[in-house]
Design brief:
Keywords: Pyridoxal phosphate. By secondary structure, the chain is of the alpha/beta class. It folds into two domains: 8-61 and 186-398, Rossmann fold, CATH 3.40.50.1100; 64-182, Rossmann fold, CATH 3.40.50.1100. The chain has helices spanning 28-37, 64-78, 94-106, 127-130, 135-141, 162-170, 190-208, 229-244, 268-286, 290-293, 315-328, 337-348, 392-398; strands at residues 24-26, 46-52, 84-90, 109-115, 145-149, 175-177, 220-225, 256-261, 300-302, 366-372. The mean pLDDT is 92. It binds pyridoxal-5'-phosphate. Residues 63-64, 94-95, 181, 183, 224-231, 333, 336-337, 373-375 line the site of pyridoxal-5'-phosphate.
């Protein structure tokens, strides 16, 4: 199993995931698809893998937020008198379902505030269905107190929740607030710092089995980037892993971790600055020197796949959703993972893909890992937009 160094190993954690790592497997048909389209047919090409964070544990619709909660739960339990977890998100937020699910297993109440103005509701053809199926239904099934608001994003993440927090306190309850996506929580980045160590241990096994083509690590890691705390946690975790394994000669180089942005609302520079801050917060907690060990150069963002907006399904994203389902039977979500996989596929077809990071094993295929962060529970709300029914010939021509 994974060995975390101190002080990381001393931080309280409440595991929600299975005792074994979430699976990493090859995407054979998407690999072939990408290599067929590759601009340099003389190269050894790419090998595309995925880590199934959507299958990391037993709770409802597993996804990346659970990993974040693994480090937040001890803080909730330490407060002893908490009765209710309160959070918010878009109408089809995956995060809120994962909060509602965690509240269930902790025996706590849960109130979720869903914002009509954020995400796909605005352009949904069937607005009633959008506000009722998918994650909204799941929140209700899990017994959450679901509130829907028209108030739009004020910029101050806590503001719309203040009346709800006051109301709960007036009823004698003790609420615990978790920000949208758990990204503002100071402990929110730790789950994916831990996941970095899990990936590193899986790489060792894959390398022993000669499945990385002579290499010992993935060359690239792609992940969807919303609030960025998943990406930030991975950056911090791999930095720490590189630092503690530095003594072993020629074993580690820097994997390039690329965040695929999923919303055009905030500028790339704003996002870079935010992710650097989140990575440094996590880094400081796990034993890195935040200022010197993590720098701007560690944050790689790609903004080309944001599409029309957060939660708005565009044709290119829908096409990737179709493609993944029809090639490797891989179910993506319309808001995050389809954009992220599209980013990886675009990259895998370009000349850039054939360049390995400095220090990497320079022969053999480039190994790229796509972190599947979950979210498929929102799919039914997007029934009008996907599948888009790619003609079969089109898929065959590409593969
Ligand atoms: C929330 C979410 C993300 C984004 O994670 P951040 O840590 O906010 O960047 C990615 N994928 C899915 C499926 C999500 O639900």
């Amino acid at each position: 199993m994974i060995n975390l160094p101190t002080p990381f190993s001393n931080l309280p954690v409440h595991r929600l995931s299975y005792a074994h790592p979430s699976p990493i497997h090859l995407l054979p048909n998407l690999t072939q698809y990408a290599n067929n389209l590759n601009v340099d047919q003389s190269s050894s090409g790419v090998r595309l893998w995925t880590k199934r964070e959507d299958q990391a544990g037993p709770l409802t619709c597993y996804g990346n937020k659970y990993r974040k909660f693994e480090y937040i739960i001890p803080d909730i339990l330490a407060r002893k008198n908490v009765t209710t977890i309160v959070t918010e998100g878009a109408i089809q937020s995956n995060h809120t379902v994962q909060v509602a699910s965690v509240a269930r297993i902790l025996g706590l109440k849960c109130t979720v505030l869903l914002h009509r103005g954020i995400g796909g509701l605005r352009i949904a053809k069937d607005k009633d269905a959008f506000a009722k199926v998918g994650n909204v239904q799941l929140n209700k099934l899990l017994g959450a107190d679901v509130r829907i608001t028209d108030e739009s994003d004020t910029g101050d993440e806590k503001a719309p929740l203040i009346p709800i927090l006051d109301e709960l306190r007036a009823q004698g309850q003790t609420p615990y607030w978790i920000s949208s996506g758990a990204s503002l929580h100071p402990l929110g980045g730790l789950g994916y710092a831990r996941c970095a160590f899990e990936i590193a241990s899986q790489e060792q096994q894959l390398a022993t089995d000669q499945r990385l083509g002579g290499s010992k690590q993935f060359d690239y890691i792609f992940v969807a980037c919303g609030s960025g705390s998943t990406l930030a946690g991975l950056i911090a975790g791999f930095k720490l892993h590189e630092k503690v394994n530095h003594a072993e000669p020629a074993v580690t180089f820097e994997r390039k971790i690329v965040g695929i942005l999923t919303s055009p609302t905030k500028s790339r520079s704003h996002q870079e600055e935010r992710i650097l801050r989140l990575a440094r917060t996590a880094g400081g907690l796990i034993g890195l020197d935040p200022e010197t060990d993590i720098t701007e150069a560690d944050v790689h963002l790609d903004e080309r796949f944001v599409g029309r907006g957060y939660g708005l399904l565009d044709a290119d994203t829908a096409e990737t959703l179709d493609l993944a389902a029809r090639t490797d039977s891989l179910l993506l979500d319309p808001v995050y993972t389809a954009k992220a996989l599209r980013g990886m596929l675009d990259w895998a077809q370009s000349a850039q893909a054939l360049q390995k990071p400095a220090g990497a094993h320079q022969t053999g295929p480039v190994n790229a890992l796509f972190i599947h962060t979950g979210g498929q529970s929102a799919l039914s709300a997007y029934a009008d937009g996907c599948p888009i029914m790619l003609p079969n010939q089109q898929l065959e021509a590409k593969s």
